[in-house]
């Protein structure tokens, strides 16, 4: 990513996202994670983000930070 001139913050974000994903399947080698498991993971994360956006919009940023810590 550095060779392709990605920003340091982008590299950090991609690494974090990969880490979250791999930690969701602690007993599996990445090659053994099925398409269904990947799609389910993505569905869960998308719904969590929608929920956090709704909380943030309705209750302010402070509340959503507390919820986000409990969700992650």
Describe the fold and architecture.
It is built from three helices and no strands. It has helices spanning 8-23, 35-59, 61-71. The chain has 72 residues and is mainly α. Helix content is 72%, strand content 0%. Helix 2 packs antiparallel against helix 3. It has two domains: 1-33; 34-72.
- DSSP summary: helix tally: 3
Q: Which spans of ≥5 residues are poorly predicted at pLDDT below 50?
A: 63-72
Average pLDDT, rounded to a whole number, is 79
How big is the Rg?
15 Å
What fraction of residues sit in β-strands?
Answer: under 5%
Q: What percentage of residues falls in helices of 4 or more residues?
A: over 70%
Q: SSE order in H/E notation?
A: HHH
Largest sheet: none
Shape: flat
- The total tally of domains equals 2
Q: What is the terminal-to-terminal distance?
A: 26 Å
Briefly note the structural class of the backbone: mainly alpha
Q: Strand tally, please?
A: 0
What descriptive keywords fit this protein?
flat; mainly alpha; 72 residues; disordered C terminus; 0% strand
Secondary structure layout:
Layout: H1 8-23, H2 35-59, H3 61-71
Helix pairs in contact: 2-3
Would you summarize the structure shown here?
With 72 residues, the protein is an all-alpha fold. 72% of the residues lie in helices and 0% in strands.
